[in-house]
Amino acid sequence: MIYFGRFLFSVLFGAPAIFLLWATWQAIQQRQRWLSHGVIIDGEVVALKERTRASNRVAGRIPLAPVVEYCVPLSTEVKRFTSQEAAAPSPFAVGQRVPVRYIAGDSPEAELNAVVEGWMFIAALAALALACLAAASVPIIITVSELR
To answer: 16-39, pLDDT tens digit by residue?
Structure first.
């Protein structure tokens, strides 16, 4: 019965570890795609949009994400996107010029260059994956040491 409990513990932490390792790999691949296919162009912050998720609030402050407009290369078309980065207080001001990384295609993508080049999200995913993997391995290590 004790071995079943240990097995269950390992599975309950091992499954999220595998998922987080997969998510880390996907985030690295996405970052590489942005860096290899993206073109850096100039954009302008035209507004700050509230991100009102309760988990994002810091001491009652509401995180603000920059809304950025940019001109599509080789065109006069102006596009707009809201960045994934939100902070309270916002480091951006309306009218501020920012570097934007743009990927052309059927559904064009754009993001702030600083967000694309950042490693914080990937590092956090990897740290969580390693923590889950370490927790999942503890019962295995204990069982092997008992069998000796």
So the answer is: 999 999 999 999 998 898 888 888
- β-strands 64-71, 39-50 pairing: antiparallel
DSSP secondary structure letters along 41-110:
EEEEEEEEEE---GGG-BTTBPPEEEEEEEEPTTS--EEEEE-S--BSS-S--TT-EEEEEEE-SSS-EE
Residues in a beta bridge with 58: 61
CA–CA separation, 98 vs 113, rounded Å?
Answer: 8
Q: Identify the burial level of 6 via C-beta atoms within 10 angstroms of its C-beta, where 0-12 means exposed, 13-18 middle and 19 or more buried.
A: middle
Tell me how crowded residue 141 is: count the other CB atoms within 10 A of its CB. Answer: 10
CA distance 136 to 131: 9
User: How many structural domains does the chain have?
Assistant: 1
Confidence of residue 56 (pLDDT cuts 50, 70, 90): very low
> Residue 67: how many CA atoms within 13 Å on its side-chain side?
9
Any bridge partners for residue 81, and if so which?
68
Q: Give the structural domain span for 18.
A: 2-147
Distance CA 1, CA 6 (A): 9
